[in-house]
Design brief:
alpha+beta; 395 residues; FIST_C; 8-stranded antiparallel sheet; 6-stranded mixed sheet
Length: 395
């Protein structure tokens, strides 16, 4: 098993795929991952991939501003591919559902899994990995359906499709088609071993409260007070400065909302929630579902933490590689909001990742929601997170 990546900044989808195809080998190619900025027409992109790599299953999604590989941080317009090369008894299969054709989230996920199992010719089997890409909105229910379908917590790595300015210019693609409101999955039955990592990389502050009124992805009240006022007060007290409503969103990537996902050695670990906008009623609209009665806290992360956390998540995932076998490649999902806050400092993230991966291939889109498997085994959806899967040579 091995991996190769390719990058093109050509705006014409057909010409770009010709360039990308010249950088990849065809022999033993069994699967592709494709990440691209909003500058491309997804339907044309799918047609070009199918023409260049006939019969090869692939999935992908749009990425915020750019994509990162072992060759650097590539600012858009850009299309990147990761070719996965494997041999028998491996199998890879994809599925894609548009929500317009299925208004039940659970059933949509089940149908997508069944498509992918059929595509891989592995009906009735449990994969080693699920790669999930969806448009923002229903990620938690998709994860629940995956866990229920397989009856065990199969490792998930995923990212919610993104655009450059949160204007719904996002999309997902696969060899099954295109969706602007749906989900796609690729099931991996690889010949080699893999490990996963999923982490927030932020620290809790002393400010916490309970959600007392909410609906799906909106918090209306915290401790009986308007959520907007509480959130702004928390930031003002922690940062020691007055913050206007207009200025508050400059601080979101620095001060997300945290919820305890579990504990290890009596120490909590968190999944993060990214506020999207204020509501007229004084609520906070989010990129993840919440429930009444949940305890939340204000989280904080310095630039230094944001720079080092991606490589730290990869390192933590690789600690499960108990025999220190040769790393073959990795898929890394990085939050788009964190990338935007880092600005030019994203180059330091790249340098740390390259070092941690020992120069081996990796691909990293910037998403508006991250899915992964926590250290205690549970799969979850969060924001401002880092998720990774590392493939390595078997003993």
């Amino acid at each position: 098993m091995r991996f190769l990546t390719s990058v093109s900044h050509v705006l014409d989808e057909k010409v770009a795929l010709t360039e990308l195809g010249e950088q990849l080998l065809q022999e033993d190619l069994v699967s592709l991952l494709c990440y691209y900025t909003e500058d491309y027409v997804p339907e044309k992109l799918v047609t070009a991939i199918q023409s260049t790599f006939p019969g090869i299953p692939f999935i992908g999604c749009s990425s915020c501003k750019g994509v990162m590989t072992e060759t650097g941080f590539h600012l858009g317009p850009v299309i990147t591919l990761m070719g996965i090369y494997d041999k028998h008894p491996c199998a890879y299969g994809t599925g894609l559902i548009d929500m317009a054709a299925c208004d039940d989230n659970h059933q949509a996920a089940i149908k997508t899994i069944e498509q992918a199992l059929y595509s891989a010719d592995r009906i009735g089997e449990v994969p080693s990995l699920v790669v999930l890409h969806a448009t923002p909105g229903n990620e938690e229910s998709f994860i629940d359906a995956i866990d229920q379908k397989f009856g065990t917590q199969v490792p998930i790595i995923g990212g919610s499709a993104a655009d450059n300015h949160i204007e719904h210019q996002w999309s997902i693609i696969s060899d099954k088609g295109v969706s602007y409101d749906g989900l796609t999955m690729q099931l991996f039955f690889p010949s080699k071993q893999l490990t996963t990592g999923f982490s927030a990389g932020y620290s809790p502050t002393e400010f916490e409260g309970m959600i007392t009124k909410s609906s799906e992805r909106t918090i209306y009240e915290i401790d009986g007070k308007p959520a907007k006022d509480v959130y702004r007060e928390w930031i003002q007290q922690h940062a020691g400065e007055q913050i206007s409503e207009q200025y508050i969103f400059d601080h979101i990537a620095r001060f997300p909302i945290g919820r305890i996902a579990g504990t290890i050695y009596d120490q909590p670990y968190y999944k993060l929630t990214h506020p999207l906008q204020l509501t007229p009623e004084g609520g906070l609209e989010l990129f993840a579902n919440v429930e009444d009665g949940e305890r939340i806290c204000l989280m904080t992360g310095s630039l230094e933490q944001l720079i080092s956390r991606a490589s730290r998540v990869v390192k933590e995932a690789n600690t499960k590689n108990y025999h220190e076998s040769l790393v073959l490649g990795a898929i890394i999902i990085h939050c788009g909001g964190s990338m935007l806050r880092l600005g030019a400092e994203i180059e330091k993230v790249y340098a740390k990742l390259l070092s941690q991966m020992n120069g081996q291939p990796f691909i990293c889109p910037f998403t508006f929601g991250e899915q992964g498997r926590f250290i205690c085994g549970e799969n979850a959806h969060g924001n401002l997170m880092i998720s990774s899967v590392i493939f390595y040579e078997s003993e």
